[in-house]
Amino acid sequence: MDETELDRRLREAFDAPADERRVVVRQARDLADSGAYYDDAGVDLTAAAMVDNLQDAPAGHSLPERWNWWMGALELAYGGYAEFQIRRWRTG
Prior knowledge:
Shape: globular
Number of helices: 5
Helix content: 55-70%
Strand content: under 5%
Oligomer: single chain
Structural class: mainly alpha
Distance between the termini: 26 Å
Low-confidence stretches: none
Number of strands: 0
């Protein structure tokens, strides 16, 4: 997973602040490194796929909330994704 590309795509798609993008990119890196998504979905975890999935979250959600919404959906579908949810993040 290309972290620079993911950060760029998140900025373009959601106009999210740098601190929110940073925490999502960090969690995405952990998810990609785990191999869980590939094992469950059978496809590589790409920046484009992540943005597509995050765009499905309800309108009005912040980027970390969108991430948690997606991780919640994966948790329900496959299990084992709760560890990738964002618990806290600092702004500024």
